[in-house]
Amino acid sequence: MNSEQYREHIERTFNAFCKIVLYHAALGAYKKLRKKQQFEVSLDYLREFDFEPVATTDEYFVKYDVPTAFTVRGKTVIVESEQLAAALLRLPEKWREVLFLRYYLGYSDEEIGKICGISRSAVFRRRKIALRLLRKEMEALENEE
């Protein structure tokens, strides 16, 4: 074989190889698309009532709870939920104070202990008991309604 014929043979072989690779790559892409189409739904086929309406409603005339104000160590705490305020009023003052200092005023157990003159572990116990009692009071108020 002369070198020119050999060169043409190599080019034709390479071209054939490239065509086969491209053909199989296209087949793989078509298979992926077909598989994807089996599981996807076009938005054109979805009906309008399947969606939540894209709108808001005015709440001008909605009845809101009357906020209740509590005073804790000279600071005013406002509780907006009437049910929660009623349940908090049923708790003893020392447990209610710990809850307000922790959850409304953001003090840590250690800081509450310094403010109230008790240990951090006592604050933790009071808070735990107060939360348990508050849960019971909330359930009792729900059952009364």
List the helices and strands and how they pair.
Blueprint: H1 3-39, E1 68-72, E2 75-79, H2 82-89, H3 93-104, H4 109-116, H5 120-144
Helix pairs in contact: 2-5, 3-5, 4-5
Quickly describe the structure.
With 145 residues, the chain is mainly α. It is built from five helices and two strands. It is 62% helix and 7% strand.
Shape: elongated
CATH superfamily of the largest domain: Winged helix-like DNA-binding domain superfamily/Winged helix DNA-binding domain
The major pleated sheet works out as: 2 strands, antiparallel
Give the tally of β-strands.
2
Based on helices, strands and strand pairing, what is the structural class?
mainly alpha
How many helical stretches? Answer: 5
Name of the CATH first level of the largest domain: Mainly Alpha
Strand percentage lies at 5-15%
Give the domain tally. Answer: 2
Helix share bin: 55-70%
Structure description:
The protein is mainly alpha-helical. The chain has two domains: 3-45; 68-144, Arc Repressor Mutant, subunit A. The protein is built from five helices and two strands, in the order αββαααα. It has a two-stranded antiparallel sheet with strand order 1-2. A hairpin with a 2-residue loop joins β1 (68-72) and β2 (75-79). The longest helix is centred in the first third of the chain and has 37 residues, at 3-39. The model has no long low-confidence stretch (mean pLDDT 84).
Keywords:
62% helix; 5 helices; Arc Repressor Mutant, subunit A; mainly alpha; 145 residues; single chain
